[in-house]
User: Which sequence fits this backbone?
């Protein structure tokens, strides 16, 4: 990739910034402000992203939430996959949803409220408040995965074998120094079902 970022139109995130370290540090410095209900809020942030994908396809989307024995959580959807473009050299550039602020929500807490009654802020909150996060992306033309630690990418885009489907899986470990155990699934299911009828 060249030294200059492609001049793409910004809708949800700034394509010119792959990582906003100051933004991530701000989130980590105020975890209760950006995730007031702890792990529940982090899961709801990811589910809101999945609901966006379902809405973009004009249909009911499928989404699954899985709790793992190590305390991590994975959320998978069958949307389009995170927007990925190509620079002048033909190298893939993914929308920096994990490491930069969501231009729609982060500075506008009145824009959308999540099912826990608190403002939506964006996926960077999930990444910043997790010890690690793995973002797996399946697009119609290419699939890849990338790992983050406290919101900072620690790998490049690692290609994956095509599976003939599209969608996104966000697998993350909420920082145990900041959060206790994850919420009970039935309570989460009730809140999400009421807030996002476009997903199942």
Assistant:
């Amino acid at each position: 990739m060249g030294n200059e970022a492609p001049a793409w139109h910004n809708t949800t995130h700034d394509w010119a910034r792959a990582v906003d370290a100051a933004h991530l540090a701000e989130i980590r410095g105020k975890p209760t402000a950006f995730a007031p209900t702890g792990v529940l809020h982090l899961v709801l942030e990811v589910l809101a992203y999945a609901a966006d994908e379902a809405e973009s396809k004009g249909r009911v989307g499928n989404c699954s939430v899985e709790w793992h024995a190590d305390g991590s959580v994975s959320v998978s959807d069958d949307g389009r996959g995170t927007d990925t473009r190509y620079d002048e050299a033909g190298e893939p550039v993914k929308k920096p949803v994990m490491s930069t602020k969501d231009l729609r929500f982060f500075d506008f807490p009145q824009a959308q409220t999540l099912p826990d009654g608190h403002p939506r802020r964006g996926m960077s909150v999930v990444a910043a408040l997790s010890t690690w996060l793995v973002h797996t992306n399946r697009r119609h033309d290419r699939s890849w995965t990338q790992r983050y630690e406290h919101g900072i990418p620690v790998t490049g885009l690692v290609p994956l074998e095509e599976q003939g489907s599209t969608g996104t899986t966000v697998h993350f470990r909420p920082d145990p120094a900041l959060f206790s155990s994850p919420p009970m699934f039935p309570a989460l299911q009730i809140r999400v079902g009421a807030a996002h009828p476009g997903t199942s």
Q: What stands out?
A: The chain has one domain: 21-195. The longest helix spans residues 39-56. Strands lie at 63-67, 73-77, 84-86, 92-94, 130-138, 143-149, 152-153, 158-159, 167-174.
